[in-house]
Amino acid sequence: MPAGTPENWIVGRAPEGETDMTYCLGILLPEGLVLASDSRTNAGVDQIATVRKLAILENPDKAVIALMSAGNLATTQTVVTTLKQAAGTGTPDRDLFLHNSMFDVAQTVGGLLRRILERDGPYVERFGDPNGTFLLAGQIRGEPPRLFQVYSAGNFVEATPRNHYLQIGETKYGKPILDRALRFDNGLARAAKLALISFDATIRSNLSVGPPIDVLCYQTDSFSTRNLIKYKNSDPYFTELKQRYSDGIQATVDAIPEPRLCPEG
Amino acid sequence: MPAGTPENWIVGRAPEGETDMTYCLGILLPEGLVLASDSRTNAGVDQIATVRKLAILENPDKAVIALMSAGNLATTQTVVTTLKQAAGTGTPDRDLFLHNSMFDVAQTVGGLLRRILERDGPYVERFGDPNGTFLLAGQIRGEPPRLFQVYSAGNFVEATPRNHYLQIGETKYGKPILDRALRFDNGLARAAKLALISFDATIRSNLSVGPPIDVLCYQTDSFSTRNLIKYKNSDPYFTELKQRYSDGIQATVDAIPEPRLCPEG
């Protein structure tokens, strides 16, 4: 199967209509990358739909490039579909497989996003926000795995060992557990566990973010997506994780002494 | 000391300039109210300063009324100072001590906020957002304690046993712990403990929210503010709570099995 065909793309889509927000998380580790996104979703008005998805472009044994998106669905889908169609065709400014560095991939994604927003934005703005953002992650042979956040302006930032996770969408509910427990030297499996706890916190506090959750654990130099797992709400592991985490929080809270209050007169 | 004098007001203010965001939390319980706010803060430009504070108006043995505010400092200060000056003077639409119900207090606060925004808003808008919001809580003799959120539009919602806590400002980081562990039948001390954990989560994830944290535990029918405690970062109880919660989270995460990954070829 040639690189760049639709079959090389795994688009993390769930049944529609259940939610209207997005949460995507990318974690950079020495062992590789953990990428997680909740399920695809539509807002009420299709022009301003908020969507999250995990799209993966594989060039066998040479590159694994993943895009997670939030924001205007028409904008982000146009970017992703254009990149998908161009992969392996040699088209400049579109074919991500032409690049030898994820930095160049980020520039191409940002540039394409700019052009699409320049073209479509003025028509869309009177109906809603045309903007979209991406988490871009992956590895090209010759480099370590890298992780970027591409803004609507087409510029981007890269994760580093000191700032080793990036989020887009509904980011805040799931941030405290990452700040408390995630370290750069964590292994892939521990980071995936923390990613699922982060999603659980988000789902509990925002009904509009919902499972299933797609989690890709990418091991450095594997050039493989075999560890792409879709966690449904009923998944036995996800269910056990949620229960044990909830029980642990309750026990922790119960064990902390309460502040002393003055008796009221 | 007559009601309505400045001495009757306890304004939760910390040294300025350390932070630039706000988080205020109000919890309604059968035993009373727990109200918490982080310390006062200024944004870079004073017209659009974001501030949080806890102001308490006491009418001895008759009413305890607390206001916590977020948003434009000039707007919220004008509302609070106007109400402070009017307390006990008998001025219609301003003197909160005229009311026999917190519902009427909420209408007066919302109405005053509307008038101030109508008067000042057009002048302020070209410099920044003139809006402000309040958590309004307290008890008037003859009623149980009540808790409201007053929006910039001057309308408001009331907490209920099924929706028994309200937040303003930087609300999301501190919400998951409340959703997991806070119940309507909790006592004041347990709710205060959870409020402090909620603030700790917010402070860890957003450097712009900072201690000290003012916490008022108001016991139903006490008409007393003796349980107003300012928790500095170095407070021994707050320090122990943070450490024990952090250790408990770490132990909980460590005890949860990690997801099984396929070995990479």
TrEMBL record, chains A, B:
One of its GO terms (cellular component) is proteasome complex. Keywords: Hydrolase, Protease, Proteasome. The keyword Ubl conjugation does not apply. It comes from Thalassobaculum litoreum DSM 18839. InterPro entries: Ntn_hydrolases_N, UCP009120_prtse. Coiled coil: none annotated. One of its GO terms (molecular function) is peptidase activity. The keyword Cytoplasm does not apply. Signal peptide: none annotated. GO terms for biological process: proteolysis. This is Putative proteasome-type protease.
